[in-house]
Amino acid sequence: MLNIADTMIVGIIGATGYAGAELVRLLAGHPEITKIVPASVSFQGERIEEVYPNFQGVVSAVLLKPEAAVDKADVVFAALPTGVGEAFAKACMEQGKNFIDLSADFRFDDDEATFTAWYGKPYIYPELRQRSVYGLPELNRARIRELAVRGPLIIGSPGCYPTGASLGIYPALSLGIAASGAAIIIDAASGVTGGGREPSRSFHYPECADSLAPYKVGAHRHTPEISRNLTFMTCASSSPVIFTPHLAPMNRGILSTIYIPLAEVCRLEQRAQPRPPAKAVTERAEEIRERYAAFYEHEPFVRVLPKGGIASTGRVRLSNFCDISVHLDQTGTMLIIATAMDNMVKGAAGQAIQNMNIIYGFDERAGLTAPPASF
Amino acid sequence: MLNIADTMIVGIIGATGYAGAELVRLLAGHPEITKIVPASVSFQGERIEEVYPNFQGVVSAVLLKPEAAVDKADVVFAALPTGVGEAFAKACMEQGKNFIDLSADFRFDDDEATFTAWYGKPYIYPELRQRSVYGLPELNRARIRELAVRGPLIIGSPGCYPTGASLGIYPALSLGIAASGAAIIIDAASGVTGGGREPSRSFHYPECADSLAPYKVGAHRHTPEISRNLTFMTCASSSPVIFTPHLAPMNRGILSTIYIPLAEVCRLEQRAQPRPPAKAVTERAEEIRERYAAFYEHEPFVRVLPKGGIASTGRVRLSNFCDISVHLDQTGTMLIIATAMDNMVKGAAGQAIQNMNIIYGFDERAGLTAPPASF
Amino acid sequence: MLNIADTMIVGIIGATGYAGAELVRLLAGHPEITKIVPASVSFQGERIEEVYPNFQGVVSAVLLKPEAAVDKADVVFAALPTGVGEAFAKACMEQGKNFIDLSADFRFDDDEATFTAWYGKPYIYPELRQRSVYGLPELNRARIRELAVRGPLIIGSPGCYPTGASLGIYPALSLGIAASGAAIIIDAASGVTGGGREPSRSFHYPECADSLAPYKVGAHRHTPEISRNLTFMTCASSSPVIFTPHLAPMNRGILSTIYIPLAEVCRLEQRAQPRPPAKAVTERAEEIRERYAAFYEHEPFVRVLPKGGIASTGRVRLSNFCDISVHLDQTGTMLIIATAMDNMVKGAAGQAIQNMNIIYGFDERAGLTAPPASF
Amino acid sequence: MLNIADTMIVGIIGATGYAGAELVRLLAGHPEITKIVPASVSFQGERIEEVYPNFQGVVSAVLLKPEAAVDKADVVFAALPTGVGEAFAKACMEQGKNFIDLSADFRFDDDEATFTAWYGKPYIYPELRQRSVYGLPELNRARIRELAVRGPLIIGSPGCYPTGASLGIYPALSLGIAASGAAIIIDAASGVTGGGREPSRSFHYPECADSLAPYKVGAHRHTPEISRNLTFMTCASSSPVIFTPHLAPMNRGILSTIYIPLAEVCRLEQRAQPRPPAKAVTERAEEIRERYAAFYEHEPFVRVLPKGGIASTGRVRLSNFCDISVHLDQTGTMLIIATAMDNMVKGAAGQAIQNMNIIYGFDERAGLTAPPASF
């Protein structure tokens, strides 16, 4: 559905949360956007540049109530808690407007049972899933495009952790590098913005500065989303997913270290104690790295790092890139993939904009071309 | 070998590195120590309180050359790079003094082949290993005590990562909780003090602040040390070890998240997509947690956290504790152990002092009783 | 009032705030203390080691209601918000127990007007000030001792900023180095623990990490406390005080940079543009530094740094030291004093303990001997 | 001098230092720039995206030797240590190319004596100052434009501290708000990128994390640059400048808190101890704030914050803004100005680009329109 009008007005519901503010920041520089209409329940009537003084002199707008933003906008982004945005999606569908949702409401398609099991509530308007699509472009860009031409669309934009995990695993499963059916372990850490803007003890500066810890071990809601993506990749029953999130003392970024048993392991001389990686192992790693690089060759936002590179959240700051580095353990039996991205960009607002670009046939990079900050 | 003299003089070789400075800080408050004699090649002739101004008014000593410190001391700690301390160990043995080494030189006993494969150099005085013992008290306190009464002893004090990994794995292997022979994955992150005091680009503030990344994936020197410890625990051939270190933007701390396949898995109803942990899974986790707690019941420095606790580096700051929390993945097939410790204390100086306490029959907690800092 | 009993039980009201937790940490290692009785309104009935898991295995106590802690204790510390502790002070006086208060309630003696102007409330029991004394030992140790022998005492333990400011200014005013009556500027920055344990947007990790800003410019409540101290030092009307606090992205520490016009300025050749400090200026700075050092020679917790030293919060971490460095501007007209201390120790809990030590005639360093952490 | 060619090629000498890398980042998105030609002595022959992996896929170029970059470029930026760039400036002048220098070489015009006194070396080609101009646009935009039409120009782009200080002081001096001739105190703190990319102990992560300290007190090289700017503002002899820099534990940002005695003070009832600011004081502060706002009304990169606003480095991150907040002390005698900017943008690369925009008649905001990052 190409936008043929002269103007393109974007509504942002939940504009004062961190993901919402990041949408504002990025859309303010988007070449195809005429106007941003931000909305907020908590701060309705205030100005966005009062809530986020960094926007003073750059972005200026009164925060509307969400319904008003829907009415005024050509396309609507929603950065709301899971479970409260369906009504706006419905309104958008009725008004023929695309709705790009950053919550979990539309990430599970018609598998309401899985959604309900993890989020503790049913779908409100289950029928909306007939118009929704999971918005991980690298996984189903074709499907997004296909639906976009048919009428107004709902994007279930992926969670931050599932993006980093899925992009790291996809080539291994798709190219048969991974051992079929073996459990995949995702050990990931997020910056504190991932916890949102609402103050709480967990994210109080002295509680999380200079400290590192896992949380919700074996019980994080992103586990089924990752699992579902793996099922999609293999077109078969999924490999079991074991996912451990951590909170790291930094503002932005998600690093995922992913352990994928290899289908075909290096055959090395056995020793009682491990040895540094043999030449066969490093060669094998390089070969897999090249296959990863080829797999993502045409993806604008996935960078498979060159030989010797290591994914680091510091290298993707404020960009929509997902960096991937490819490694093997010293015995050549386990593929170790590291992925790094900015949790607020590729993990939230940037990816949502990428989806908008796909829907409207814009350059997929539009509004997302700024290089990562060096420091 | 009990110390029957009136005085106890401690020599510290390499006193100006971070581990050395931490030895000074902790030994300054040790009730059994009469005097600290610090030595440094780089800063010989300067005063320790000039190199570390935090010590002004608390610790005051000229930095000697290492040989002089050996001569004056009753017991010698060496916090030197691997490969340069053997001569001092030899001198200590000849002078009948215990030598507690924080490098890797004495961590591999008579397995010189493994040492050489990873550290790129042979043993200089291989025969010293007849008097050396690996100093992880929770693993072989009895052996340390046994050797201590026979004459001067060399302690190969463990590496920081191997300590956190080994303590997390030991009960699982020892109690038969772990599936026999299955690969164990250790995903760990260290604070920047782990990189030492010497400035380099990797540890330059703007390069590592607000960033997270793995390093030496599949190729870190601590892998064989962990593996050797696992062999020791099982009294059999080791489970394969896959170890990935990360650098985290914090000063102190090592967090290890360890994935151990269970010998006996929960039998749960199979579903296409994962569900939150069932009651059987949480009960099983609690049962294993209790076994861990019982296993370490008498250990002064291992805290198996109560139900619901999660290991966090922020809770062990500046203490010799290793905190352990016990978890299962949502399917009940994988044991997930998190361990947290201060890399400079239990991961270096504190553990070395714990070894000294064992050797001399001091209270094992002597000098190590300060509560962890709350923030 | 010396403690002649065999036991010494310490009550801590407000034990779960940051200053309270720091009291627990430090008193746990105090050689004269038999037992700690912590109390908390918010967490009454829970255990201190549940609220602060770092204390597990080290400190173990149920949190009582404050009244119960007063009853059981020989001496009571109160780390409460200003305005709520007077009743406990009254109870202590009635029970003949010393009361050491970390709020502002007892910092202004009988100048209720100033207290009320800044804190917006009157004294509840004004008569308590007959038994209270301002607890900055370096300023009025003699007075504390004098009152302590007469009966139960209330200590108004100083604010964090006033401590760092006052210690930096005292010699300059006392020795006539400062120009009489000229305004003194204190530009200071605190770590985030200074904001307390209660979550709020200002201290939410992503809001204050990697950022620096002043707050309450020209309107901070510590201004009159500093001013009052200056009046005390000069035994005359105070120099005007200009005080600007900042919030710095760190856990602990207060750095104060203090600008004091010199009574006697260096007479240097005038130039249109400044020149690097002439020899006369650096010599003058050194002379003043020596006078500062002599002034504080016998103070156990004030370190006037040697020539070339610069006060840094990183060098006093977790200690009760206040470090002072002495500088002049390049023209030799302005004395610039930098003071650094741990805001939670010398700025709160440590100073309160120092006061207790003075009252009871303990070694003033008791419980406060741990060297500052190097990192 | 308008660029009338079809292409605009920018050379960057010293492209691998932090300021150089920031030039690359910003110029990569500059709408008028055709091509970037980076040069580096240390990394000549390597690719910029190898030295800064964050640039992979965004910026791709081999690092030339500086001379080659000069030859190929239409305009040359130099981000070199002071004292090594004059030869390149000379070459540019000879080739008729504008040269924008980020070192101190061209900041002192013909006052070589002051330059030499602080930087310890003479000018190499003193005659180049006939073509150079100090590049603080808010101070002398007109002069830059005037010289730009006459031929190739050298910009002496300001130091980071002098920018924040000068912009905060300019209205006070220019509008007669400041007391004539009274000393102005600038207490400022910089993020660690200000120390450059070269590893050293001062900027080693564990040495500066979680710590705050002043440095070069009374002796920083930026003092005479600030002083010279003040002379320029008053068109008369300068107010004495007292400047104290600090190192703060953050990557980016400079905060300056500036104390300026008022020409006309509020007349308040005198009291022995200070009172919170009276209405007259807050009204006076607001009046001065409005004059500041009017003064900078047309400046694209200076934001005088609205009433109640406080300058914070966290609000200008990655932008070319200098935020200014206006305050008075509680007695109404001292103007307190806080300014915040990104030391690498308005304090270095962004300002240099702003100068380029002025020279070439581009929109002054070109390449500098991205909103500050919210976190």
Short note summarizing the structure:
By secondary structure, chain A is of the alpha/beta class. The first copy, chain A, has helices spanning 18-27, 48-51, 66-72, 86-95, 112-119, 137-148, 160-174, 205-208, 222-234, 279-295, 345-360, and strands spanning 9-13, 35-39, 75-78, 98-101, 132-134, 154-156, 184-190, 213-214, 241-247, 254-261, 302-304, 322-328, 334-341.
Compile the SSE list and pairings:
The structure is a homotetramer of 375-residue chains.
Chain A: E1 9-13, H1 18-27, E2 35-39, H2 48-51, H3 66-72, E3 75-78, H4 86-95, E4 98-101, H5 112-119, E5 132-134, H6 137-148, E6 154-156, H7 160-174, E7 184-190, H8 205-208, E8 213-214, H9 222-234, E9 241-247, E10 254-261, H10 279-295, E11 302-304, E12 322-328, E13 334-341, H11 345-360
Parallel strand pairs in A: 1-2, 1-3, 3-4, 4-6, 5-6, 7-9, 11-12
Antiparallel strand pairs in A: 7-10, 8-9, 10-13, 12-13
Helix pairs in contact in A: 1-11, 3-4, 6-11, 7-9
